């Protein structure tokens, strides 16, 4: 049976959350956003982590950075070492130094990026290897830097659907396997995933479309969007406990539970 372990997460309250620009297909600046509802949904997510026994720290939000709530993009942190980020889009560029400063104050060794990379959005630790997405945000060259820095073999995965612009929107790392949406990946990357994870949970497009795969697994429990009902049932059939949360307001910017959650591994 899958076994949970206590995790250490960094989050950022969506104090300044809004949608004023569009850098992915989910974002529509003309659609109304309810900031108070976004904060309440985020607090529910944070509360779920506390209830599961995880350590949650918070970084201070910065005015004018509405996407800073998506902490997963702030760094990749493994074994006390952090790879800082370089965002593709200028709208998010100032998030990078804010997260780098927090990590330095927290005692992590922080390394500067050599290429565009958007943290755990595209670099996901899966057991003894790193799954690394490219195609929309993180440059392929960042995969080589991550391998040299962390010493984990890197598996490059090509994303092909702009709705799933980060790896963590199309794939969730579970306990010894993954859940993913095949259609989000190139044919070659689908073949790699089938080879690596013949027992993977295959999500359907309906659940992926509510960012059901943007989920957080602690080994035995999976926090995922409550709207992803079929995926939750599949996970429970594999022995996982599922915790559904509603982040529909933050989904207007293309984010879900994982986007809001950076795992900081000491």
How far apart the termini lie comes to 26 Å
CATH architecture: 5-stranded Propeller
Strand order of the largest sheet: 2-1-15
CATH superfamily: L-arginine/glycine Amidinotransferase, Chain A
Classification by helices and strands: alpha/beta
Radius of gyration: 17 Å
Shape: globular
Largest sheet geometry: 3 strands, mixed
Structural account:
The protein is an alpha/beta fold and 266 residues long. It has a single domain (8-263), classed as 5-stranded Propeller (L-arginine/glycine Amidinotransferase, Chain A), CATH 3.75.10.10. It is built from six helices and 15 strands. The strands form five sheets. It has a three-stranded mixed β-sheet, with helices on one face. A three-stranded mixed β-sheet has the order 3-4-5, sandwiched between helices. The longest helix is centred in the first third of the chain and has 17 residues, at 35-51. It is globular and about 45 Å long.
């Amino acid at each position: 049976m899958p076994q949970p372990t206590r995790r250490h997460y960094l989050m950022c309250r969506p104090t300044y959350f809004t949608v004023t620009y569009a850098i992915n297909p989910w974002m529509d600046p003309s659609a109304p956003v309810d900031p108070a509802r976004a904060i309440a949904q985020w607090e529910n997510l944070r509360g779920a982590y506390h209830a599961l026994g995880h350590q949650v720290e918070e970084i201070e939000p910065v005015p004018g950075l509405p996407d800073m709530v998506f902490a997963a993009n702030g760094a990749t942190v493994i074994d006390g070492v952090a790879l800082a980020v370089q965002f593709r889009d200028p709208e998010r560029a100032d998030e990078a130094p804010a997260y780098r400063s927090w990590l330095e104050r927290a005692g992590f060794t922080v390394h500067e990026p050599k290429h565009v990379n958007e943290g755990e959005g595209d670099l996901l630790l899966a057991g003894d290897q790193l799954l690394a997405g490219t195609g929309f945000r993180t440059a392929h060259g960042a995969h080589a830097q991550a391998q040299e820095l962390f010493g984990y073999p890197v598996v490059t995965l090509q994303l092909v659907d702009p709705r799933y612009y980060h790896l963590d929107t199309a794939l969730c790392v579970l306990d010894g396997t993954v859940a993913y949406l095949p259609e989000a990946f190139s044919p070659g990357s689908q073949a790699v995933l089938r080879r690596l994870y013949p027992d993977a949970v295959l999500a359907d497009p309906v659940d992926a479309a509510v960012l059901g795969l943007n989920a957080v697994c602690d080994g035995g429990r999976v926090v995922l969007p409550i709207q992803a009902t079929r995926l939750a049932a599949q996970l429970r059939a594999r022995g996982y406990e599922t915790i559904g949360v509603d982040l529909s307001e933050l989904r207007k910017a293309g984010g879900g539970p994982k986007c809001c959650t950076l795992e900081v591994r000491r």
